[in-house]
Specification:
With about 400 residues, the protein is mainly beta. Among the domains are: about 180 residues, no CATH class; about 100 residues, no CATH class. The chain has 6 helices and 25 strands. The strands form 4 sheets. Strands 3, 5, 6, 9, 10, 11, 14, 17, 18, 20, 21 and 23 form a 12-stranded mixed β-sheet that branches. Strands 1, 2, 4, 7, 8 and 22 form a 6-stranded mixed β-sheet that branches. It has a 4-stranded antiparallel β-sheet with strand order 16-15-24-25. β24 and β25 form a beta hairpin.
Length: about 400
């Protein structure tokens, strides 16, 4: 069967990060047989496993989003315990493995609605590694977040992911708000053009967040100790607004089996075009999930049983360099040819403005909304409950 390698590359990146993008190969029209399994069995927390199909080339995205394998998923331990998955949405199943023992071996059983069954191989639990010295360092015009990571006995391979949260501010705090939709006779009267902001219109402080797109992977195999020094977590430009005020990164790390890390590393290499021209496509790779009812069916994926650990780092604005001058973006509007000010044509929303002294037609500064409304840059006023300062 000929594989459509180029379309594979579109999907690999998100599979590695624990989510599903649709794979595509040149199956016959309407066939949805091979499946993709993404995730690991997480001991001591909620396990998240996602199922998807290998879709025929040309399948519309709308159909991909509608078609997911369904059935019964169960995490099993060699001690006889089991945890049944609960279906959430778009192929995602969750398992309450928060009380699962951190010893022994685990596997995943998948029984689809049509009776097809898949089993992952038994996986011994990979103990949680130790994260130490999570820190930020400036190198030229970027900030690098790095860490040291050490595995438990016999654990030489590592994976890490992260979530970022940051607080940033608008460039200016507005003094006035523009009142849109005024009758033409009122557009020359500053007392009618502007109003004071309401208490809930303080859009100076905002927060935003993002998760890692792909995992970090490393191996200490071949070394005398199972430890990685200066493992790079993320690199941020010094002009990035994320570090303009207060930035937080939560790093979650786990050990992996050697074959599990190699499998994920290959996916990452292929996704980033760094793999060999002769590297196998994902469907040719040897995962650890087999179909027990029909050996001709394929499951793309690799399941490890892991314990994870987490470390948090805050970074202040000491590395930040503003990449622009906000004063360059504000202006005082000029009158039209007839000498009148048509403010409705300047801004059609409740745009915030700045004023020096008593408002007039010629001393109120206007500018892009992003200069005075932090939400225009994609953030929100939803401050995390755990955020360490009193900004709001």
């Amino acid at each position: 069967m000929k594989k459509s390698t180029l379309i594979y590359l579109v999907s690999l990146l998100t599979l590695v990060s624990g989510c599903i993008y649709p794979f595509s190969v040149e199956h016959g029209e309407g066939e949805f047989s091979d499946i993709v399994v993404s995730g690991n069995i997480l001991i001591g927390e909620t396990t998240r496993i996602t199922l998807g199909y290998v879709y025929p080339v040309g399948t519309p995205p709308s159909e991909m989003r509608r078609q997911y394998p369904t059935g019964t998923l169960t995490v099993e331990s060699d001690s006889g315990l089991s945890w049944k998955g609960s279906y959430q949405y778009r192929g995602l199943y969750t398992f309450d493995t928060s009380e699962a023992p951190a010893e022994g071996s685990y596997r995943l059983r998948i029984t689809l609605d049509d009776g097809t069954e898949y089993l992952s191989e038994w996986s011994a639990v990979c103990s949680a590694p130790q994260i130490s010295n999570l820190r930020a360092m400036q190198a030229a015009d970027v900030v690098q977040v790095v860490m040291d990571i050490k595995g438990g006995e016999g654990q030489w391979s590592f994976r890490w992911d992260y979530t970022q949260t940051w607080e940033y501010h608008a460039d200016f705090r507005p003094d006035l708000m523009f009142i849109p939709g005024l009758p033409e006779k009122d557009r020359e009267d500053p007392s009618k053009i502007y109003r004071l902001p309401e208490a809930d219109e303080d859009y100076y402080y905002c927060w935003s967040s993002a998760a890692s797109v792909e995992p970090g992977l490393a191996s200490a195999e071949g070394q005398s100790i199972n430890e990685i020094h200066n493992a790079e977590v993320i690199t941020i430009p010094c002009t990035d607004v994320r570090i303009s005020h207060l930035y937080c990164i939560d790093v979650t790390a786990s050990s992996l089996s050697a074959t599990g890390r190699a499998w994920q590393q290959h996916l990452k290499d292929v996704s980033n075009d760094t793999g060999s021209l002769f590297s196998p496509t994902p469907s040719d790779m040897e995962g650890n999930i087999k179909c027990t009812t029909d050996p001709s069916l394929t499951a793309i994926g690799y399941i490890d049983a892991v314990c994870r650990t987490q470390s948090r780092l805050f970074i202040g604005p000491q590395f930040y360099r503003r990449g622009y001058n906000p004063d360059d973006w504000i202006f005082i509007p000029d009158p039209d040819e007839d000498g009148f000010y048509n403010f409705d044509n300047l801004f059609i929303n409740n745009s915030p403005v700045r004023c020096n002294g008593t408002p007039s037609k010629t001393n109120v500064y206007w500018g892009p909304k992003r200069c005075t409304d932090c939400r225009a840059s994609g953030g929100s006023k939803a401050k995390p409950d755990w955020w360490p300062n009193n900004d709001k």
